[in-house]
Design goal:
It is a single chain. By secondary structure, this protein is an alpha/beta fold. The chain folds into 3 domains: 90 residues, Rossmann fold (3-Layer(aba) Sandwich); 202 residues, Mur-like, catalytic domain (UDP-N-acetylmuramoyl-L-alanine:D-glutamate ligase); 139 residues, Mur ligase, C-terminal domain (Protein-Tyrosine Phosphatase, Chain A), CATH 3.90.190.20. The chain has 17 helices and 21 strands. The protein has a 6-stranded parallel sheet with strand order 7-8-6-9-10-11, with helices on both faces. A 6-stranded mixed sheet has the order 16-17-21-18-19-20, sandwiched between helices. The chain has a 5-stranded parallel sheet with strand order 3-2-1-4-5, with helices on both faces. Helix 10 links the parallel strand 10 and strand 11.
């Protein structure tokens, strides 16, 4: 039986990008929609939604509003354990997320990509590979446009490449990827998830509804990811930089290669990859594995990879001044991501770290900091925690703003060194999001160059 919301009372909780898209989609399907958000200003500008007949309710989420609904749809940023949401569940109201909602109406197949790090890069590159192969593909979900915005144009031959976070996966029920991809797994978002196991369980839902006709693409170098995927019913086609593979994509000498039952076939030269760092090379292997499963010819994959120069805020080069390079990896929002960013450079790194602590142990960076980092500059709420973990290894300087952090990092950087923004924390203590933080870093670098050149 098809999913029908016509004339049903639906409450959308959270007026962010995904929530607004869900409200529009629900109205187009005949639902009576109320959009609620604790931030009244988030609703003030929604003239188009009001025109569509969406009712707005600012302020605290009222339990009576949610318990009287036929369906509650959560934006990814809304914690599902809030009292009003729990009350709705106890009242028998179905509570789902925006990705779950949209997926019930998509006509095309889904490629879902999750992991602690690398989701956006892999999702964007995968969409490019599929498009270069002549397939109709669009990226969405946690990157680009919300999945709800893709429903109207979805056709049976479309492939929806969906970046899915743990926040989105935890509120799925029937979500069914044709290809489910797990890039890696390490502790993250412990400011939202109560335990590491809860976080991992949310990630594992990507495999929950797969059948033997589907595919799972997993990082064979990551024991935690392998363990999480062990129970999947889907066929496996993994990727690896180091582990031996019978079936999957790996690196052999100067080439990225496909292995099938022990037979090795070149896919593209490694030189086709223009992204720095081994972790970004692993993302290319993952995207290549998806392309192979989808039937994209190697030549088309190589063209897409050669054109792909990475994403903003992901090891993004911001130029050079006075013999020092500046690199923006604002998307490195956890400890393991920061580690991979630092490992992308040999030595002479001054790393800007800090923000709102979201779990993990900064002491786990000790070995790589000791080998490659010249100094650490801290910002934000986690500054003292970072200093306590690393001050016995390198000088640690506190900064009061991003501009101050860039100035202090440049002063501490050796000739030929790198000033790297790799926060290992979320941005919400000082910035709207990681992109706002990355733009602040780039603006500070630009201003520093102007000041130094004027001297």
């Amino acid at each position: 039986m098809s999913f029908d919301v016509s004339n049903r009372r639906v409450v959308v909780v959270g007026a962010g990008r995904s929530g607004r898209a869900a409200a529009r989609l629900l109205r187009s399907r005949g639902a009576e929609v109320t959009l609620t958000d604790t931030d009244a200003s988030a609703l003030d500008q929604e003239v188009d939604l009001r025109t569509l007949g969406v009712r707005m309710e600012p302020g605290a989420h009222r339990p009576e509003l949610l318990t009287s609904a036929d369906l509650v749809v959560l934006s990814p940023g809304v914690p599902p354990a809030q009292p009003a949401i729990e009350a709705a569940r106890r009242a028998g109201v179905a509570v789902i997320g925006e990705v779950e909602l949209a997926s019930r109406w998509l006509a095309g197949r889904i490629v879902a990509i999750t992991g602690t790090k690398g989701k956006s890069t892999t999702t964007s590159l995968t969409a490019g590979i599929l498009q270069e192969g002549g397939l109709e593909a669009a990226a969405g979900g946690n990157i680009g446009i919300a999945l709800s915005e893709q429903v109207a144009g979805s056709r049976a031959d479309a492939i929806h490449v969906v970046e899915v976070s743990s926040f989105q996966l935890e509120s799925t029920d029937t979500f069914h990827p044709w290809i489910a991809v797990l890039l890696n797994l390490s502790p993250d978002h412990l400011d939202r998830h109560a335990t590491e196991d809860e976080y991992a369980s949310a990630k594992a839902r990507i495999f929950r509804n797969q059948a033997s006709s589907d595919w799972a693409v997993v990082n064979a170098d990551d024991p935690a990811a392998l363990a999480l995927a062990r129970g999947t019913r889907a066929r496996r086609f993994d990727f690896s930089l180091e582990a031996p593979l019978e079936d999957g994509v790996t690196v052999d000498g100067d080439h990225i290669v496909e292995r099938r039952r022990g037979v090795t076939t070149p896919v593209m030269p490694r030189a086709a990859v223009h992204l720095p760092g081994r972790h970004l090379l692993a993302d290319v292997l993952a995207a290549s594995a998806i392309g192979i499963v989808a039937g994209v010819p190697p030549a088309a994959m190589q063209r897409a990879v050669e054109r792909f120069r990475g994403l903003e805020h992901a090891l993004e080069s911001v130029g050079e001044h006075g013999g020092v390079r500046f690199v923006n990896d604002s998307k490195a929002t956890n400890v393991i991501s920061a580690r991979r960013a630092i490992e992308s450079f040999d030595a002479g790194v001054v790393v800007i770290m800090g923000g709102r602590y979201k779990g993990g142990d900064f002491a786990d960076l000790g070995d790589v900091v000791g080998r490659r980092v010249a100094a650490v500059v801290t910002i934000g709420e986690a500054s003292d925690r970072i200093e306590a973990a690393l001050r016995h290894l390198v000088p640690v300087h506190h900064a009061t703003s991003m501009a101050d952090a860039v100035s202090r990092a440049y002063a501490a950087a050796p000739q030929g060194g790198v000033v790297l923004l790799a926060p290992a924390c979320s941005s919400f203590d000082m910035f709207r999001d990681y992109a706002d933080r990355g733009r602040a870093f780039k603006a500070a670098v630009t201003e520093l160059k102007k000041e130094r050149m004027a001297q």
